[in-house]
Design brief:
This protein is α/β, with parallel strands linked by helices. The protein has a single domain, classed as 3-Layer(aba) Sandwich (Rossmann fold), CATH 3.40.50. It is built from 14 helices and twelve strands. The strands form three sheets. It has a seven-stranded parallel beta sheet with strand order 3-2-1-4-5-6-10, sandwiched between helices. Strands 7-9-11 form a three-stranded mixed beta sheet. β5, α7 and β6 form a beta-alpha-beta unit. The radius of gyration is 19 Å and the shape is globular. The protein binds nicotinamide-adenine-dinucleotide. The site of nicotinamide-adenine-dinucleotide has 25 residues, from α2, α6 and β7.
Length: 366
């Protein structure tokens, strides 16, 4: 989509979480469009890390900074003077959040407060997209998609920390960045984005199904599946990232119009309903591209994780013109192809990533 490139070229974009899985793809996409990216994160944790595989350290402004430190976050915002902010930094794992609830709430809740508060003194126009998750909704375990107006909630610490982020975004928007006061008391256009379970090359996190598949298959072992019946809205990582970029762009258009005011809000970026599949279906689809086996490791005493979860995406379609590009099969095929190239054929991760961004962008918005 050429409008995105025209829009982001030469923009200063503050990207938190730029060393993570989604953040590295986002940084690569932004850099490829000619944006000046100022990243704020911890050092990458996984080995390997997509951030290093893409050699992003040398191609953006890399700040290793804990977002739990409000003063340091404010210093970076002040010196970067961003045109756009994408806030992705978080502790994103459900099971880890049961082990480290304080760290999870501190990073996800207070970290978000620190980023938003730093923007109060910015004194220039800035579009801000805070990334939460489909798990921010109070999960009723019902077979209907969640709409943006559904109540926030969350059973485990991760999910509820993201529900809390949504409430914080809403509070900052009403208290400090009210759309009705734009251009008077502030110049911040603030929205939030809720995406489903993303898959794609370069995710090396522990405890996620696709990296687990790739690690075990490349070792010739069966894939351990701990929750085969849980359904998730699977989507390729480029799908929500395209949504975030589009949302950031739309937040800068026709500011003060009624349409713009309704865009200063929360958006779901999920897949088409046919991509709401079980973990088992995902694993079986992976095995079509990379033959192997899986074993059921369901544990009746496992910590609680959401069973049924899917998102309604009419709002993003209606107000932003966003819709998913790749279906379930293409998302998995692309993901397996990325790992296959990098792990098996020793191909360059940067090349594999760039090719997928180009292929995706050609279809995006059509
Ligand atoms: N991966 C998914 O399926 C998924 C689904 C929905 C929403 N999300 C959300 O997308 C965002 C990115 O997720 P991801 O999968 O790329 O996670 P990730 O773990 O790969 O990356 C997390 C990023 O946050 C940074 N970070 C963590 N704690 C920090 C701290 N205290 N200070 C500064 N930076 C810190 C890390 O350094 C890293 O850059 C998160 O907000 C997550 O909740 C992810």
């Amino acid at each position: 989509m050429s409008e995105l490139k025209t829009h982001y070229q030469d923009k200063t974009v503050l990207l938190t979480g730029h060393t993570g899985f989604k953040g590295s793809w986002m940084a690569e996409w932004l850099v490829s469009m000619g944006a000046r990216v100022v990243g704020v994160s911890l050092e990458p944790e996984s080995e390997p890390a997509l951030f290093d595989q893409l050699k992003l350290r040398d191609r953006l402004e890399h700040h290793v900074q804990d977002i739990r430190d409000a003063a340091k976050v404010a210093d970076i915002v002040k010196s970067a003077r961003p045109d756009v902010v994408f806030h992705l930094a978080a502790q994103p794992l459900v099971r880890y959040s049961y082990e480290r609830p304080i760290e999870t709430f501190d990073t996800n809740v207070m970290g978000t407060v620190h980023v938003l508060d730093a923007l109060r003194g910015l004194g220039k126009p800035c579009e801000v997209v805070v990334v939460t998750t489909d798990k921010c909704y109070e999960n009723l375990e019902v077979d209907r998609p969640y709409v943006e107006e559904d109540p926030m909630g969350g059973y485990d610490p991760y999910s509820s920390s993201k529900g809390a982020c949504e409430l914080i975004v809403s509070s900052y928007r009403r208290s400090f960045f009210h759309p009705d006061d734009f251009g008077k008391s502030h110049q911040i256009a603030l929205a939030s984005a809720r995406a489903g379970n993303v898959i794609g090359g370069g995710d090396w996190a522990l405890d996620r199904i696709v990296p687990d598949c790739m690690r075990t298959l490349s070792n010739g072992a069966p894939i351990p599946v701990r929750n085969p019946v849980a359904t998730r809205p699977w989507q390729h990582v480029l799908e929500p990232l395209g949504g975030y970029l589009l949302l950031g762009m739309k937040l800068s258009e026709d500011q003060t119009s009624e349409r713009w005011k309704s865009i200063c809000s929360g958006f779901n970026f999920g897949p088409d309903p046919e991509s709401n599949r079980s973990v088992r279906a995902l694993v079986e689809e992976v095995l079509k591209s990379w033959p192997g086996e899986w074993i059921d490791q369901s544990d009746p005493n496992a910590l609680h994780e959401a069973g049924l979860l899917n998102l309604a995406i009419e709002k993003a379609n209606r107000l932003l013109g966003w819709r998913p590009v790749w279906n379930f099969e293409s998302a998995i095929e692309g993901t397996v192809a990325w790992y296959n190239a990098v792990l098996d054929k020793n191909a360059d991760a940067l090349d594999a990533t760039r090719k997928q961004i180009t292929a995706y962008t050609e279809l995006f918005g059509k």
